[in-house]
Amino acid sequence: MAFFGYKDIDKLSGVDLAIYRFIVEHDEQIPYMRVRELARGAHVSNSSVMRFIRKIGYDSFPEFKVSLRSETPIQKPDDPGIQFVQPSAFPADITKIIRLAAQLMVNADNIVFVGIGASAALGEYASRQTSSLGFNSYVVKDPFYPLLPQLRNTSNNVLVAVSVSGQTTELVEMLNDFVNNPEVNIISITSNLESTIARMSRYALTYRATEERIHQYYDLTSQVPCLYIIEALLRELRHQEVVQHRFE
């Protein structure tokens, strides 16, 4: 039984939810608490805590604490200093790949950024900036959005997939509809060159970043290297657009 993987949250009562939220917010302290301390913090009774513990599959509070401790990673002290991105965070040929990716984009009829979660937020920023440069660009943040029907009668499209892991199942399934489509080119921005999404792409813009998660499911991996690539891509896109117009 895994506490953070508990799937029946919708079946919990209001009291149970109060206990659940308190545990999630104080997961590092819970293994050192007593039942009454947890109950006081969640503003419930001791018996409510014990009913909750049994409801989620544990025979006793000590058993629950041992299980929770095994699920909670050891946290390193936060470094208050600014985390600068070094050139070593990018492959040696990143500038060349950015230039090639921009060539695809500058001639595209549609530029669609796709991503989920924090990556979607970066895709939204990139799309807005791309639109400001005069390109037809938008972002898709919902992996179940009917993008295939929307692009069915269009040509010369570029999909820019933003994904830290490059393995997001829903994003892979969306891109799979376009891998063999001659009217769609896929560009990816990811920290994993060997990932599924990178291998599906014509050009993979990659960077190195240490994955960091809390509560196992919340991704706090730095998106700064990704933003560096997006900014470089926008500058190159602007440069190629100016050069192209100069010779028209």
As a whole number of angstroms, the C-alpha radius of gyration is 23 Å
Count of alpha/pi helices? 10
Q: CATH fold name of the largest domain, please?
A: Rossmann fold
Structural class: alpha/beta
- Element pattern in H and E: HHHHHEHEHEHEHEEEH
Largest sheet: 5 strands, parallel
Strand order of the largest sheet: 2-1-3-4-5
Strand content: 5-15%
Q: Report the principal-axis shape.
A: elongated
User: Any idea what the CATH superfamily of the largest domain is called?
Assistant: Glucose-6-phosphate isomerase like protein, domain 1
Give the low-confidence spans: none
Helix percentage range: 40-55%
Please tell me the CATH architecture of the largest domain by its name: 3-Layer(aba) Sandwich
Q: How far apart lie the N and C ends?
A: 65 Å
Tell me the name of the CATH class of the largest domain: Alpha Beta
Number of DSSP strands? 7
Mean pLDDT: 86
Number of domains: 2
Q: Which structural traits does this protein have?
A:
5-stranded parallel beta sheet; alpha/beta; 10 helices; 2 domains; two-stranded antiparallel ribbon; 44% helix; Rossmann fold; single chain; 248 residues; Arc Repressor Mutant, subunit A; 7 strands
Secondary-structure map with pairings?
Blueprint: H1 14-25, H2 35-42, H3 46-55, H4 61-71, H5 94-106, E1 110-114, H6 118-132, E2 137-140, H7 147-151, E3 157-162, H8 169-176, E4 184-190, H9 196-200, E5 203-206, E6 213-214, E7 218-219, H10 224-246
Parallel strand pairs: 1-2, 1-3, 3-4, 4-5
Antiparallel strand pairs: 6-7
Helix pairs in contact: 1-2, 2-3, 5-10, 6-10
Protein name: RpiR family transcriptional regulator
Domain SIS: 101-240
GO molecular function: carbohydrate derivative binding; DNA binding; DNA-binding transcription factor activity
